[in-house]
Each structure stands twice: as C-alpha cells, then as structure tokens.
Design goal:
This protein is an alpha+beta fold. It has helices at residues 10-14, 41-45, 71-76; strands at 18-20, 27-29, 51-53, 59-61, 81-83, 91-93. The strands form 3 sheets. It has a two-stranded antiparallel sheet. It has a two-stranded antiparallel ribbon with strand order 2-5. The longest helix has 6 residues, at 71-76.
C-alpha cells in the first residue's frame, strides 16, 4: 500500500488536534468527591485518558488533551463533576488527516 492510500489510525488523527488553553479548565472534580466510587467510571470511559487513580484511591484529572466530548459528565453525573465548555477560541480544535 502506498503512503497516499494508507489509512490513519485514531491515535495519529488525535495527534493532529490543537489544544488552546483557557484561563480556567472547563472540567473540575467537585471537592470532596475524589474518592467517590462513581467517579472511577471516568477512568474507563474517557477517550483521551485524562482520569487516573492515585495511590490514595483518589481520582485525578489531567487537563491536557480533553476532547470536550462530555463522556465523563454522562458517566459520572453533574453531582461529581463541574463541567462546561471552554470560552470561545479555547479548547480543542480538531484537525482531520
């Protein structure tokens, strides 16, 4: 297969995206909810892999690379996450390869 006809994989396509930081990140774990077992769903469902569990059993959120899909909000609910879209001009800009 020639280079011109090769299909890009998902990771390669996501690597083309541009992320513009906002003054404030658009997702925040509500303080005191870091150990809530329902929040662990975000670790499994986030397509960007932004959620992880630390050695104290708390879920942590990495701000870099959010796709703004809302999957974590749907899985965990608004009682665990404070979620809103970034302000205009900030956030993810998708580039399709």
């Amino acid at each position: 297969m020639s280079e011109a006809t090769q299909v890009m994989g998902l990771k390669a396509k996501l690597g083309l995206d541009v992320f513009k930081h906002d003054s404030e990140f658009h997702i925040r774990i509500i303080p005191g909810c870091e150990k809530d077992p329902r929040l662990k769903k975000a670790i499994l469902v986030c397509p960007a892999g932004l959620y992880s569990e630390n050695s104290q059993g708390e879920v942590e959120l990495d701000q870099d690379g959010c796709l703004e899909c809302g999957t974590c909000r749907i899985a965990c609910g608004s009682d665990l996450l404070d979620w809103h879209y970034p302000s205009g001009g900030a956030g993810v800009q998708f580039r399709f390869g």
